Amino acid sequence: MAVTSVTPHLTYYDFTASSSTLEVGGNVPGLVDSGGSCIVTATRGAVTVTQTFTASPQASSTECGTMRLASPKLTSGTWNLTIGYRSPRAAGASPSTEVTL
């Protein structure tokens, strides 16, 4: 079976400095898929924080849900966020989005 190329969307982000926690929301529009994972990557210079989350199929998309990255490496400043998606059926990544934490 061929793997379908998809583009996940970043729907929101929020940063809590006191706990160094970045909350990210995202989905894969137009794909209803089970057994996949969403991968959030936050990059600032040489620092990269990444974590994988279980995705869930909805009526017309695949939802990443609320993804929380907690790391002492996450500090205030300008970061680049990317959401990736991977399953046996589909794979892809969002464009990098510059955000200010």
Description:
The protein has 101 residues and is mainly β. It has one domain (4-100): Immunoglobulin-like. The chain has no helices and ten strands. The protein has strands at residues 4-5, 9-16, 21-29, 37-44, 47-54, 56-57, 61-70, 78-86, 90-93, 97-100. The chain is elongated, with a radius of gyration of 14 Å. The protein starts with a strand and ends with a strand. The mean pLDDT is 96.
Give a topology summary.
Blueprint: E1 4-5, E2 9-16, E3 21-29, E4 37-44, E5 47-54, E6 56-57, E7 61-70, E8 78-86, E9 90-93, E10 97-100
Parallel strand pairs: 1-9
Antiparallel strand pairs: 2-3, 3-7, 4-5, 4-8, 6-7, 8-9, 8-10
Brief characterization of the structure:
This protein is mainly beta. It is built from no helices and 10 strands.
Helical residues, percent:
under 10%
Structural class: mainly beta
CATH topology: Immunoglobulin-like
Distance between the termini: 40 Å
Write the H/E string, N to C.
EEEEEEEEEE
- The CATH superfamily label reads Immunoglobulins
* Structural Rg: 14 Å
From the spread of the alpha carbons, the general shape counts as elongated
Largest sheet: 6 strands, mixed
- Low-confidence regions: none
The name of the CATH architecture is Sandwich
Number of strands: 10
Mean pLDDT: 96
Count, helices? 0
Which percent band covers the strand fraction? over 45%
At the first level of CATH, what is the class? Mainly Beta
Number of domains: 1
